[in-house]
Amino acid sequence: MTTCSVSKGCFVFKPSTKKRRLSEKTANFRSPNHDSEDTELRFVTCQSLWSQIKSETEQIQEDLNKQLIDNLMSFLSRSHPDFQEKTTEWTCGMKFREIPTAALVLGVNVTDHDLTFRGLSDVLQDNITPYVALLDAKDCPGIKNLMQKLMGQLMNCDIEVDSLEDEDCVQVSQNRIRCSMPSLISWYESVTKKTDSETPSKKRNSSSRHWQTPPVVVIFKDMESFTTKVLQDFIVISSQHIHEIPLVLIFGIATSPMIIHRLLPHSVSSLLCIELFQSLSCKEHLSTIIDKLILTSRFPFKLGEKVLRVLINIFLYHDFSVQNFIKGFQLCILEHFYSEPLSVLCCHQGDAKKRVYSLSHDQCENIRKLPSFRRYVEKQESGKQIELLTNDSFLKIRELHCACLENQVWETEEYESSLQLARMLNKTDLVTMLQQCVEILMSSSGKEFDKTVEKLKELLTQFQNLEVAEASQERDVSISSQKELQKKTDLYHLQKTLLELKESRRSKKLTKFEMLRFEVVDYIDRLVRKYLVPADNRTLHEIVYFNAATVLRGHLNAAPRTALHTALNNPHWYLKNQALKCDGGGISNKAPDICIVYKLHLECGRLINLVDWLEAFSTVVMAAEEPNGDAASSDEVDDTIHARFIRAVSELELLGFIKPSKQKTDHVARLTWGGC
Amino acid sequence: MPNLAHPAYPSAELLHLESLVPCRESQVSMLLSIFGERQHFSFPSIFIYGHTSSGKTYVMQTLLTTLQLPHVFVNCVEHFTSRLLLEEILIQLQSCSSGTEQTSPVHCDTLNDFVRLFKQTLASQELQDQTVYIVLDRAEQLREMEANILPAFLRLQELTDRNVTVILLSEIVWELFRPSIGCFEPFTMYFPDYSIGHLQKILSQNHPPEYSADFYAAYINILLGVFYMVCRDLKELRHLAALNFSKYCEPVVRGEANERDTRKLWKNIEPHLKKAMQTVYLREISSSQWERLQRDGGEPGQLKGLSAHTHMELPYYSKFLLIAAYLASYNPVRTDKRFFLKHHGKIRKTNFMKKHEKTSNHLLGPKPFPLDRLLAILYSIVDNRVAPTANIFSQVLMNLVLMYCLPHLLEMESRQPQMQTFTL
């Protein structure tokens, strides 16, 4: 695979999963300026926090996939019920043996699939069969490669099992073995026979989990990307041997199950016994993750509103990938602990208390520098102000209080919008919502909520009392209006009464229920205003809230084209060299050659004359050396300049801005921004 | 009086053979006369073609095994490289007459080796006085292998100078095999489709032991009445017959009707079969699910077929990318300015559309377009500003995957990951 240019598109070549080097040293984490910033402690805090979050997300994902995996397991367990018993039943002879196939619809978030498959194959290997092969489309351009991959994976797993039990086994080198179904079958027979003949006492614990003839599971991770021919051939071949080897296929499908019928003709799909399994939609998946990771007081680290929006936007607009969301979240944590010295305090309450007491003077100074703290100070009366600014210990106590408060702050934006909704809710919904509120508040630990709960409960009982009276009243209204309608038959009157009715509804609607509803909504509004102050207004919010959305966007949603253009057009942006700072659109001759060439080429049309280009280039470059340049060089270009020009042009070609043109030999064609 | 008669084989064997291959007697007798007696040289290569499940493989296999002719039976799909194919033939040949003797691993990379090893094997196996038959099933795969494989198999008799006949089985006609440089022409033979009468006869032959043959024949009759219009595949029909037979027997088992109550039985089974035609036959739901449904007496309506799950969620920009790609592949480039620019100026109506463009572009199929055009259209159709980020570019890649899934708009021109032009 070759990429034609960097500037035209973005090409993702994912490396095969390599073992990442774990635990980079703390040295990387240390910022050069201060020692007072507790880099070590921050690093440790960050790591422990991340490991907590990581295990939590893994747990969540496991729970979410549990249903799917359970279904698959039961499917597998009934897939080859009579493999060994040779049934003589009439129907079995008549029906053809179809290959049991599970179509696993996983959604378009392809990046998440790997994790699901890994989890799946682990579970399968633990519970059902040691013989699981995972196939990637990019490894299997032909049926030959597919068979090689398949056999390699299956036979390796066997060797692994054997070596664990310290057994002699013939090391089968893959090259020597014929990659065909018969050899796979003979391997399977030998393997199952071996486990059969073995004394049960020794092997019981390991093999009892599997059955006598465990099925061989072949997982096609990305079915859409496989070529039709490979799939068809493999299915045809395996259907001929399904009597000898209990194969089960699993198709990972990113789009819709219809793809099976599109990829496989009827003659092939009739060899399969396809059952459909659907994973949880990625949106639900994400909302669970957000609920459990971000809208919870379990973790001290919080995302600012903008940051959260960046992450969610990337999810909704681009990839639907929960995995990428979590990666982004990880980046936020890392960035927060790296850039914010006070993030030492971003830990659980108990630890935070201890750390607050051991704050050094420098750190207190850091706190004082925080804008939110300054705002807080300004609000206090002057006596206290001085004290706050001078007395470290006093500061510490304040700080702790704030940290406690922070933990109870929930997501603000959503509450505001839901409030509007609540004003329009009907009764039953409102009641259930109130009940939920009560439950949530009860479960949260804060003492200050006790009163609120009582008040809410009171409102609830009022509602219940209302219900009876309300119902009868409503019915009265509707009956009477219907009667009226029946009386007035001619059109004009009908219209009039309808209008009247509408009017009266509007005015009359302020029933007891309405009053109560307003009361409730107002009350909730007051509550929200009191407790759910936007995080930015809180004192010391910088400690637990990560708000650097632009940094995050730069990392996660990079714009290579723009960056390239900026780098070439305005080298000062990246090089930070004062000499390069240019005003307006002029071309500085101190800029790197490629920048000069690039800027010149922007002024050209579709085809660029190389000679003109070179001349323009040498003029710009020579402008710097004008004092000692002599007249002779003006028409004869210096060799070094010529060489520099050629190098710069070929660099541009490498970057994909230009390409040699066949129309005119001494011209190059522009490829970008108004080019061909 | 048996239809099959040949002086070389005992008539009892022939009678047995005839009972095994119903409705294919004429083909079998033809083959027998070509084969001649055991030691006779036969035609070097025979090409047999006919539709799916017209009994080619089955007839050949039964014929060769019943008459105990030395033969090798290889499926070319399964042995997808020439090496695998040749080695498989040799291995089978070794075990063909030597019986249980453990075969030594064979290495055979080229046809030259094959001819040499073939002669060796035949010499050691005392097979010289009989014709050896090599049957290559799904022979159309041979065309994908090296160019010399197919011509060499066609004249293997001549190359090896041994008594061997190669039989090719295929679903396509010989004309599609013939190499451009020409080759030895095999004897071609056509296996016609089974007629409805044939199907009836073959299907009713194998009735379940607990019911009478007439009862089963009546069932097959109903089954064919429903399915013959859509499916003439014998294997498929047999499968369907086995799947639905228990439902047919239900009234008899419950004692509501006896075996001769054809009308009652028909009333019971007919709607069921129609439902099967819409679901199981199309593989919308799997046969095991169908059986489970039958057992539990549930309605097929509760099980959603594969095509019921057509809804697909896509990220916001992916949707727009697909729309943009669709527009780019069907709209002529000249119209872009008019459709996607705010101030495009006036365009004279009469000359605007060229004559050939008036025919629907959909009839002409999608056209390739440059990637830049796709992105430009995307930027103009999305309401708010789209930053040209890496994510967008990689989404273009993802769309390539998605292309397979939107049938009427998506058809990729070439499989290579060429990003410059592709059609949607």
Short précis:
The complex is a heterodimer of chains A (676) and B (424). Chain A has 28 helices and ten strands.
Kindly name the structural category of chain A. alpha/beta
Strand order of the largest sheet of chain A: 2-3-4-1-5
Total strands of chain A? 10
Shape of chain B: flat
Radius of gyration of chain B: 30 Å
Distance between the first and last residues' Cα of chain B: 64 Å
User: The biggest beta sheet of chain B, please?
Assistant: 5 strands, parallel
Spans of at least 5 consecutive residues with low confidence of chain A: 1-11, 17-34, 159-175, 199-208, 398-420, 444-448, 468-489, 505-510
Question: Which geometry of chain A do the CA atoms define?
Answer: flat
Mean pLDDT of chain A: 70
- How much of the sequence lies in strands of chain B comes to 5-15%
How confident overall, as mean pLDDT of chain B?
80
Helix content of chain A: 55-70%
Query: Over the alpha carbons, how many angstroms does the gyration radius of chain A reach?
Result: 35 Å
In terms of DSSP E residues, the strand content of chain A is 5-15%
Strand order of the largest sheet of chain B: 2-3-4-1-5
Q: For the terminal residues of chain A, how far apart are their CA atoms? A: 23 Å
Word description of this protein:
The complex is a heterodimer of chains A (676) and B (424). Helix content of chain A is 59%, strand content 7%. With 676 residues, chain A is an alpha/beta fold. Chain A is flat. Chain A starts with 38 loop residues before the first helix and ends in a 6-residue tail after the last strand. Helices cover 48% and strands 8% of the residues of chain B. Chain B has 19 helices and seven strands. In chain B, strands 2-3-4-1-5 form a five-stranded parallel sheet. A two-stranded antiparallel ribbon of chain B has the order 6-7. In chain B, α9 packs across α11 and α10 crosses α11. The C terminus of chain B is likely disordered. Chains A and B meet through α2, β1, α7, α8 and α9 of A and α4, α10, α12, α13 and α19 of B.
